[in-house]
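User: Hey, quick favor. My workstation is busy. Could you predict this chain's structure for me?
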Amino acid sequence: MKLNTKLSAAAAFLSLSAGVQAGEMSKEPVVVPEPEPVVGSAVSGTLSFDLNTHFISYGADVWGGGSAWGDAIFNPSLELAFALPGDVTFLLGTWWDVNDNAASNIGDNIQEIDVWAGLSKSFGPVSATVLYQQWYYGGDTEQIIDLILGFDVPLSPSVTVHGRPDAGASGGEDGVVVVLGVEPGFDAGPVSFSVPVGVAFMTDGFQAGDSGFGYVSAGLQASVPLPIPVEYGEWALNAGVTFYYTDDDVIPNNPDEAFLTGNVGVSVSF
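Assistant: No problem, here it is.
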């Protein structure tokens, strides 16, 4: 789901993060990476503060940015990982969309709050994650069930089955999106780079269009550690760009079929 960030919105986010234990992987955007477990720690997490040029939800250009880069959209997120017996991880998270593109049903320019809970476990080179999500926006709730498979092999392929049993205020229908992805990475000095590529197929009406090929995306993301003492967590500056090509028969409401998005933010892992 462009914004002039307000201190009140950031404060509200931190307050809810402390009190709400439940979150569009939110959108691709929005997607929040699974925190790297800290050896010897039962709880780990990642807190991120991101500015995005667009809000892309499974190929849909939610705020209609198209080829233009306007005001930044503020997307803070938090995910906690709790180590359980049997090498199982319990996940809790939240993602927010904060901007002044429309009157807010929530308050303080907060357009959307996503919350999620789920379980993750590795089976040799394969990791499996199941998430139940609720996305609150537009005075309604969209419900999501995700199955995410990751493979610890060259190119880091993944399969995401994104199910929507309740479309809420999305404007689309209940259905499924399948995203096939790879994300090779490399380092250049202290900077870590990744090249996420994805192609998605969806059922009829999911984005208010036909079924079939929905979009392909390709990006370049970079992350560099920040010189902050480790006792305050592992901080990083992150930035990147992502190109999207969408099929206007399957995703008919985007202003442009092809467009480039950008992102920059700061994250801390603990």
